[in-house]
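Exercise: predict the fold of this chain.
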Amino acid sequence: TVATPLAALLDHADALCRRRGARLTVQRRQVLGIVWGAQGPLGAYEILGALRAVVPGAAPPTVYRALEFLIEQGLVHRLETLHAFVGCAHPDEPHAGQFLICRSCGAVRELEDPLVSRSVLAAADATGFRAERPVVEVSGRCARCARDAR
């Protein structure tokens, strides 16, 4: 049988976790599949609703624990401004992403620009601040929505 693109991504995530000495359990894999299979960012309770379609007794702590693990493994990002989660576009290497968030259609695009990360860390360091999560979230309009607004 031919694996679906999502199944192949989940298998890759499982292999990454194993290489890191972590375990992608069935429920963690299900939560990751929901996040990676979504068309956009999902809130924790949206994830819970989707998980309950396959695991009727799923409870909020199950989702939050799975999300915590997936974030630690670099497979999912939390978008603070949206209180939502998105799959990581670059899970193979640890990084602090930058996100472009369209306030019109809700689309999110992950960037990984090392210059931006270094600049944020250097600016924080210059003030004596020790950044723990140098994630940048930029709100605006995607190219399509900006074009449609004209």
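Check your answer against the key: The longest strand covers residues 98-102.
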